[in-house]
Design goal:
By secondary structure, the protein is of the alpha/beta class. It is 38% helix and 13% strand. It has an eleven-stranded mixed β-sheet with strand order 1-3-2-4-6-5-10-11-9-7-8, sandwiched between helices. α4 (106-113) links the parallel β2 (75-79) and β3. The chain binds glutamine (GLN).
């Protein structure tokens, strides 16, 4: 039995039947990391003792016949923007080098109390700003399907770790697509719940009105099981919603779940994308229809303004959130300076990378007096229009299906010098973030590749969106799509 390819259900059964121990499972993943991560570079840091201690605890519970947590023994990876008590948390930024948090993010704490074993912290774009991990202050993660290509971002390390079987599941954060887009580029499942569905306590803030924590897994069912543990009200996060969490896992049925589901297909999401991706998504939609779903062609007319709107709001919020890195409270401080102001300046100049600086400047600009009304306030109004597009669409449809990314994994270095090109990679994901609705990306076949040009087939991702708090429907459709063969070859 290959211990690094198991689903969460298979782990539960295997542990109960004593086919393997939790410690063996963790060690198998540590072995995989040792073998593969020098090429993939998904992890920024490892926590071998923390993982093994937790695994031994699970093994003792099994030996004593105690009831196990729902994620007992499951090896997981955590994006390095989530605080982990006693384990360095850097947001892939030099400014947080050496910062060791005194507490755990709620999501991490919930996973560990359910029995999950934290293998380590994963690489990402600095402060989750980017779409490729190339903005990491440390190194770039490589796509396990093609090592000369990006894994997507910003949660590229978490996606790559799961894709390369170096973790069963992982956590990422999604502000404008940072879970869904790397999931698509790495060929795994990645999900963002409704804004407020999952606690943000202990998630280092980038753009607070857009930030979400969410899971990656290799199957829709694994993702449902991790979301189940994380979702629900947290008194430590005042924006977390007090809405009951249904049993997502029990709700997963078969292909029958697709009968009568109205699938909205927005025309704005099928223009100007890589034609192979468009063709795969069309085939994916046909498969849903073959299993009883009904296709409804719709329009989300304000989509064109989404990128501009998102990059005004997220930079505005980032400029405010990142003011706290002053060389006094966290991490790095410039070694030499003249006075306090000079210390701030040198610390921030040396600690932040180019993209973070660009966003702080843009955000400060759109919030400044005289420009606030023209940019920030205007963007807030557009955000409302984008949200309304969705609310109106969901009067006629149950889910909306789109490509996750307009392009497959691009080559390392191909877009770094052109921030606008990089921003355009988010074109299909930012709208759901602005509206606060839940979204999932599932694998939907691959591109053909081109052996003559040494291009391997690359994963394609299909995005499914639903109305606020209808995560259950998303997971049902994703699972039904998976078991009808959609992931491999729609
Ligand atoms: N790529 C987008 C950005 O750079 C989204 C990032 C994210 O979701 N954290 O802002």
């Amino acid at each position: 039995m290959e211990l690094t390819q198991l689903t969460i259900d298979a782990i539960r059964e295997g542990l109960a039947a004593r086919k393997f121990s939790a410690e063996e499972l963790v060690r198998a993943h540590q072995g995989a990391i040792e073998r593969k991560d020098k090429d993939v570079r998904a992890y920024l840091s490892l926590s071998p003792e923390r993982a093994l201690e937790q695994a031994r605890k699970v093994d003792r519970q099994i030996a004593a016949g105690e009831k196990l947590g729902p994620l007992a023994g499951v090896p997981v990876a955590i994006k390095d923007v989530l605080l982990t008590r006693g384990l360095a948390t850097t947001c892939a930024s030099k400014i947080l080098k050496g910062y060791v948090p005194p507490y755990d993010a709620t999501t991490v704490a919930r996973l560990e109390s359910a029995g999950a074993c934290v293998l380590g912290k994963t690489n990402c774009d600095e402060f989750a700003m980017g779409s490729s991990t190339e903005n990491s202050g440390y190194f770039t993660t490589h796509n396990p399907h093609a090592l000369d290509r990006v894994p997507g971002g910003s949660s590229g390390g978490s996606a790559a770790a799961v894709a390369a079987n170096m973790a069963v599941a992982s956590l990422g954060s999604d502000t404008g697509g940072s879970i869904r887009q790397p999931a698509a580029l790495c060929g795994v499942v990645g999900m963002m719940g409704t804004y407020g569905r999952v606690s943000r306590y202990g998630l280092v803030a980038f753009a607070s009105s857009l930030d979400h924590v969410g899971p990656f897994g290799r199957t829709a069912r694994d993702v449902a099981q991790v979301l189940q543990i994380m979702a629900g009200r947290d008194p430590l996060d005042s924006t977390s919603a007090d809405v009951p969490v249904p049993d997502y896992v029990a709700a997963l049925g078969g292909e029958n779940d697709l009968k009568g589901v109205r699938v909205g297909v927005p025309k704005e999401y099928f223009a100007g994308l890589n034609p192979e991706i468009g063709a795969n998504i069309e085939k994916g939609i046909d498969l849903l229809v073959k299993n009883g779903a009904r296709r409804v062609d719709i329009s989300l007319p304000h989509t064109d303004y989404a990128i501009a709107c998102y990059y005004i709001i997220c930079t505005a919020e980032a400029s405010s959130n990142l003011a706290r890195y002053d060389g006094v409270r966290y991490g790095y401080r410039a070694p030499q300076y003249e006075d306090l102001r000079d210390m701030y300046r040198k610390t921030r100049d040396g600690g932040f990378g180019a993209e973070v600086k660009r966003r702080i400047m843009l955000g400060t600009y759109v919030l400044s007096s005289g420009y606030y009304d023209a940019y920030y306030l205007k963007a807030q109004k557009v955000r409302t229009l984008i949200t309304r597009d969705y609310l109106e669409a969901f009067e006629d449809v149950d889910v909306i299906v789109t490509p996750t990314s307009p392009i497959p994994a691009f080559k390392l270095g191909e877009r770094v010098d052109d921030p606008l090109q990089m921003y355009l990679a988010d074109i299909y994901t930012v709208t759901a973030s602005l509206a606060g609705i839940p979204g999932i990306s599932v694998p939907c076949g691959r591109t053909k590749g081109n052996p003559a040009r040494n291009e391997p087939p690359l994963p394609v991702g299909m995005q499914i969106l639903a109305k606020h708090f209808d995560e259950m429907r998303l997971l049902q459709v994703a699972h039904a799509f998976e078991i009808s063969g959609g992931f491999d070859n729609p």
